[in-house]
Design a protein that fits this description.
Oligomer: single chain
Strand content: 15-25%
Largest sheet: 8 strands, antiparallel
Order of helices and strands: HEEEEEEHHEHHEHHHHHHH
Distance between the termini: 34 Å
CATH topology of the largest domain: Jelly Rolls
Radius of gyration: 22 Å
Number of helices: 12
Mean pLDDT: 81
Length: 284
């Protein structure tokens, strides 16, 4: 892990100025953090099941649960990027804006066109965040949280970019969204922090998709229903917990989202042919 990523994970925030000149095309993949970019240049942005060709200045919002890639086309490319974790905003009284905001949803509007006047104002906010990030001010985290929320409020006043909605290989992109979110649910690290997403409906709701749309896409791309992928991961995690922890079966059942241990026992036996206790005994 690079020092940059280590520092980012420790404090949950980083803001920096993009390179003013780049000779090669660059690709930005999904990170573990929410991202807000103010960029001027020509690029192609792939976000979930949509693609967008951007030229000029745009404001982009990236969600860690939604795969996206950013292809920079022009060699002159300037702007700012702000990365932050959900935990960084968790102490802020309006931290729920992340979940309510239309900018961070699959079906939302992650890209906004920015006028020159708007660019100058937003540039100032990013520059202020950089200044505070490098300062010794004791409450700079609180101040930076205010700047992030100010950017979100300013964005909500703006109009969404046009021509965003060209679905290119939609099934593959939606399947990637689902599979990445599924992977992020595991491993289960504590019995008191149970699995939150257990059904296709849970995943569809989390991704702001209709469950039928999600099911069709996943089945088309993988040949298996959404529920099968979820079940495979739950059983694999159950086996790992039975083999490598001392948690009792009731704790494991709760950690995997089962209301009662008996439900987990029946589920595990139906999927593996053995009850959890017998599996654990054989695995020792």
């Amino acid at each position: 892990m690079s020092p940059f990523n280590t520092e980012l994970k420790l404090k949950g925030f980083n803001v920096y100025e993009l390179e003013s000149d780049g000779e090669a095309t660059r690709f930005y993949s999904r990170k573990d953090f929410y991202k807000v970019c103010l960029t001027t240049g020509k690029s192609i942005i792939h976000y979930a099941d949509r693609s967008f060709e951007a030229e000029g200045t745009v404001l982009f919002f990236g969600n860690p649960h939604i795969p996206y890639s950013w292809e920079t086309v022009s060699t002159t490319y300037v702007g700012y990027t702000c990365l932050f974790s959900e935990a960084f905003l968790s102490t802020f009284e309006r931290a729920d804006m992340l979940h309510q905001s239309p900018f961070f949803k699959v079906g939302g509007t992650p890209i906004l066109r920015i006028t020159e006047q708007q660019r100058v104002f937003l540039n100032g906010l990013f520059q202020q965040m950089i200044t505070e990030q490098n300062s010794d001010y004791a409450f700079k985290d609180d101040l930076i949280r205010n700047y992030i929320n100010l950017i979100l409020h300013e964005a909500m006043k703006l109009q969404p970019a046009e021509n965003l909605g060209q679905h290119q290989n939609a099934a593959s992109r939606i399947t990637a969204v689902f599979m990445e979110l599924l992977e992020r649910q595991f491993p289960i690290e504590r019995p008191d922090a149970p699995l939150q997403l257990r059904t296709a409906q849970d995943y569809a709701q989390n991704l702001s998709l209709h469950v039928n749309y999600l099911n069709r896409a996943v089945k088309e791309v993988t040949g298996k229903p959404t529920s099968s992928h979820i079940a495979e991961h739950i059983i694999a995690e159950a086996k790992a917990l039975l083999q490598h922890t001392t948690w009792n079966v009731a704790d494991i059942a709760y950690a995997l989202g089962f209301e009662y241990p008996s439900y987990f026992n029946n589920y595990f036996k139906r999927m593996t042919g053995k009850n959890p206790s017998a599996y654990r005994a054989e695995a020792v």
